[in-house]
Amino acid sequence: MKAPTIHLGCAGWSVASGHPDFSRLEGTVLERYVHRLSAVEINSSFYRPHRHSTYVRWAASTPHDFRFSVKVPKAITHTARLQDTQEALNTFVEQVNGLGEKLGCLLVQLPPSLAFEVEVARHFFADLRGLTTVRTVCEPRHPSWFTAEAEALLTECRVSRVAADPAPAKVGEAARRPGGDPHTVYYRWHGSPRMYYSAYPAEALAELAREIRNRTQVQEVWVIFDNTAAGAGVDNALELRKLLLGGATE
């Protein structure tokens, strides 16, 4: 059975600036980053919009098989809380379409206070699906999203639930397991025990590599290290890359 395509990287490419594995390479920070890693998650889009032309420029700086995941703006997820977002979604999708075929995924991260409401969620994801067929993943952080009803809705809307580490305390281990649409698995590791700072030990990375290899029914696996505040994420990504070489397609 064909192994899943793996997209491996960090939350942002600035991690390549000054890192010894990248510093000897030529080009912009992004152009250096893509020599070692096959994907990146754009988090800056959560805080501020980027022009269509900016996304076009970023795409042009990467090889044909490189992929971007883009985080949906907080104005949509946190301020509007998924309601009355059609105009904002239109604008966002028009912007990110500048990445062309290199737009691999959209990340919808929800605030911890946002409970699952089936009609709100169905309407939002239907609006999004009406604008793009790009793979979409959701990182909910309220316990109500980890129910059979929420799981069914995500699957219906072809949205995968992020496998996040560490799991939110109020959710528990369910948050560490993927859910929703089974065709995509998206690991988003934030650093543990100290979020955004802590590096993952070799044993955790080896276990993750084994888990990825066993996901033979999946089309795509994304692994994004968000523990980038002190540079740990890029080291973890490079180590996982070594573990996966020969085991799946990058």
From TrEMBL:
<dbReference type="Pfam" id="PF01904">
    <property type="entry name" value="DUF72"/>
</dbReference>
<dbReference type="InterPro" id="IPR036520">
    <property type="entry name" value="UPF0759_sf"/>
</dbReference>
<dbReference type="InterPro" id="IPR002763">
    <property type="entry name" value="DUF72"/>
</dbReference>
<protein>
    <recommendedName>
        <fullName>DUF72 domain-containing protein</fullName>
    </recommendedName>
</protein>
